[in-house]
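PROTEIN DESIGN WORKSHEET
SECTION A - STRUCTURE
LENGTH: 226
TOKENS:
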């Protein structure tokens, strides 16, 4: 029962991480305008994402424009686009493998733990790798934003702050790594219990000794020995 609960918890964390990874990939709020110095136009904010840049104006007016060329993007956004797409695909494959390896799934050998253990282990490793892949571009872009923000030679209008997509990316990476750790532990626990069960010597029933057979009486009488 506890093992099944851990499987459901790992699958839930993996699903949350997968949805978060896809959301971070398409969200434009990777970099947002910083209202500092002479840049105090608070009713207008600029967003920069992996695929488009947006301008938000009050009240409830949003204008977005898709980037004309990939080569026109900064190097961190170029790398982040490819890494986030790879992470989304890897997380989707890990989620599918985790579903097939669940105890309630019947299409991977029924209740045979020997067939589902490798699937759970593969799903756990893939979730951890996807989390690390998500963490790499998010942290890279965040470090560039912080470095430019404290750069005294950069104009205030070109400085940016950390957007909501970066915080969601960190949370998604944490959920993916946690899901991978849970599923890997469950798979290792299944392997240990299975090897312990197979290592027990088979119980052999000791044959019961029947009643002692009566010795046949000698046909000779005592008088014949005298």
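SECTION B - SEQUENCE
RESIDUE ASSIGNMENT:
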């Amino acid at each position: 029962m506890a093992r099944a609960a851990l499987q459901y918890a790992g699958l839930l964390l993996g699903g949350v991480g997968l949805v978060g990874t896809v959301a971070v990939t398409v969200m434009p709020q990777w970099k947002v305008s910083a209202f500092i110095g002479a840049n105090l136009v608070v009713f207008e904010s600029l967003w920069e994402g992996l695929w488009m840049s947006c301008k938000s104006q009050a009240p409830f007016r949003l204008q977005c424009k898709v980037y004309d060329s990939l080569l026109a993007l900064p190097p961190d956004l170029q790398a982040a686009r490819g890494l986030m797409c790879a992470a989304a695909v890897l997380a989707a494959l890990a989620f599918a493998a985790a579903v097939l390896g669940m105890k309630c799934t019947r299409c991977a050998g029924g209740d045979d733990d020997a067939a589902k253990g490798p699937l759970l282990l593969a799903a756990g490793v893939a979730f951890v790798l996807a989390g690390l892949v998500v963490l790499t571009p998010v942290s890279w872009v965040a470090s560039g934003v912080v470095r430019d923000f404290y750069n005294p030679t950069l104009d205030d209008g070109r400085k940016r702050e950390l957007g909501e997509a970066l915080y969601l990316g960190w949370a998604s990476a944490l959920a993916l790594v946690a899901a991978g750790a849970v599923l890997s532990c469950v798979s290792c626990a299944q392997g240990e219990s299975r090897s312990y069960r197979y290592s027990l010597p088979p119980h052999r029933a000791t044959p019961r000794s029947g009643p002692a057979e009566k010795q046949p009486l000698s046909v000779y009488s005592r008088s014949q020995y005298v």
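SECTION C - NOTES
The helical segments are 2-26, 75-100, 113-149, 164-199.
Residues 28 and 49 are 4 Å apart (CA to CA).
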